[in-house]
Fold this protein.
Amino acid sequence: MPEYPVPEIADVALEGVLKALGDPTRLAIVRMLADGQARPKAEVWDAFATSKATCAHHFKTLREAGLVTYEVHGRTHDIRLRKIELDERFPGLLGAVTGAPADA
Amino acid sequence: MPEYPVPEIADVALEGVLKALGDPTRLAIVRMLADGQARPKAEVWDAFATSKATCAHHFKTLREAGLVTYEVHGRTHDIRLRKIELDERFPGLLGAVTGAPADA
C-alpha cells in the first residue's frame, strides 16, 4: 500500500473530478500543474496566499479524486497532474478547464 | 426582476459551473439536456428516481450556477441548458462532460 494512494484511472469518476475542480484554489492549482510536469509541493503552496495546512487539504482532495499524484524523493514531495491518463479518460476536459490543449 | 433569474453569461464562473456539475444527478440532468432543447421539468424529474423536491433543488443549483434557464409557458415550466452561451464562454467544456461535440 503506497503512502499516498491514488485511484486507478479507470475508477476515477467524472463527477468526483468536477467536484474537486469546483473550488477556486484547487482549480488554480490544477492550472499551475497543467503542463503535466511534477513540481515540489512547497513551490505550489508558495504561490497561494493560504496556509500550508489548507493547501495540503486541497492536494489531498485532488489526489483522492484522481487528479494528481505525489512523487516522494527523500524529503521532497512533488505533485503532478495525471495529465496523460486524464486526457485519455476524459478527452477535452483538462484542456477546457485549464485552457491548455490536450496535446500541448 | 424575472421570477427565475439567471446570471449573465459573462458573470458565470468556471469553478461554480464545475461545482454544480460535480454531483451525479446534476451531471445526469445536464447530459439529458445536452442537445440544448427545452424540456418540461416534469419530463426531466420523471427520469430520475428522486423526489420532485430534490430535483427542484438540483434545477435551482444548476440555474444559479449559470448552466440552465427556465422557460415558463403558463403552468408548464421548461428547463433548457444554456448550450450556445456556455460553449462560447467555456469552449469544449460541455462536450467533455456530456460526450457531445460543441457543434452537434
In short: Chain A touches chain B at residues 13-24, 27, 90-93, 95-97 (CB under 8 Å). The radius of gyration of chain A is 13 Å. Chain A has a mean pLDDT of 91.
